[in-house]
Design goal:
244 residues; alpha/beta; 9 helices; 9 strands; 20% strand; disordered N terminus; binds adenosine-5'-diphosphate; binds cytidine-5'-monophosphate
Length: 244
């Protein structure tokens, strides 16, 4: 146990932050790895807390007429496909206690201005989910906890084929072409390299109940610390003075 002598601050910025700032969780992983499933399970278990889910998909750029005409040549798995500035703006507002309107993305029309937008209120926990949510360092810096859902490529491909043909009514040939031309290379070049930023790597996604239970326990502990700091503002000083 290390004891450090720290002057008691008159106002502690860290304590003030704990009053207001939401606990931000990032959930990354390949397409169809089970990110949404994992987020839904976490949200279900945290039913007594104010939790919101923000999908990176909502921040896809709208396509120009030219891009729409050649949509099979568009790379939806490249970091440039997302409007990260807008995502950062929305997060900034949420962190300052302001509600934001998050666009709804329509995978059929490739447009993100589907009316009405989703109104998201400031919450205790914000979950940011998306294939490339760990790519931009400014977005990573917002996160208190980073989770990478690690599911085998063949499982992801099988799920994607089922989802894109059954739910999105896409042609299987086009799904396979998109996978080999864009999805797989982008996973190797941009998504997999962000795994190193994760605090927790979940094998088998939503099947891994033990991992999800542990994550929820940790979030509850952290939220409890937020609450304690609201009741005992000097707790920050005690925490800083004694460090294991
Ligand atoms: P992501 O958000 O990473 O794209 P999803 O959670 O939406 O992944 O899952 C992709 C598809 O795979 C969905 O159709 C979902 O129902 C299915 N799926 C997800 N997890 C499992 C699982 N553990 N077992 C079977 N199917 C699953
Ligand atoms: O939900 P998930 O993380 O799987 O969504 C990301 C995937 O959606 C990407 O792999 C991308 O190729 C795909 N996508 C698509 N068509 C769009 C937008 C994204 O197939 N219009």
């Amino acid at each position: 146990l290390e004891s450090r002598n720290i002057e008691k601050p008159t106002t502690s910025p860290a304590t003030e932050n704990l009053h207001k700032q939401p606990f931000v969780i990032g959930v990354a992983g390949g397409a169809a790895s089970g990110k949404t499933t994992v987020c839904d399970m976490i949200i279900q278990q945290l039913h007594d807390q104010r939790v919101v889910l923000v999908n990176q998909d909502s921040f896809y750029h709208n396509l120009t007429e030219e891009e729409l005409a050649r949509v099979h040549e568009y790379n939806f798995d490249h970091p440039d496909a997302f409007n990260t500035e807008k995502l950062l703006d929305s997060m900034e507002n949420l962190r300052h206690g302001q509600a934001v309107d998050i666009p709804n993305y329509d995978f059929k029309s490739y447009k993100n201005n589907v009316f009405p937008a989703r109104r998201v209120n400031p919450s205790d926990v914000i979950i940011l989910e998306g294939i490339l949510i760990f790519h931009d360092p400014r977005v990573r810096e917002l996160m208190n906890m980073k989770i990478f859902v690690d599911t085998d490529a063949d499982v992801r491909l099988a799920r994607r084929i089922r989802r894109d043909t059954v739910e999105k009514h896409r042609d299987i040939g086009a799904v396979l072409d998109q996978y080999s031309k864009f999805v797989k290379p982008a996973f190797d070049d941009f998504i997999l390299p962000t795994k190193k930023y994760a605090d927790i790597i979940i094998p088998r996604g939503g099947d891994n109940h033990v991992a999800i239970d542990l994550i929820v326990q940790h979030i509850r502990t952290k939220l409890g610390q937020h609450d304690l700091c609201k009741i005992y503002p000097n707790l920050y000083v005690i925490q800083s003075t004694f460090q294991l």
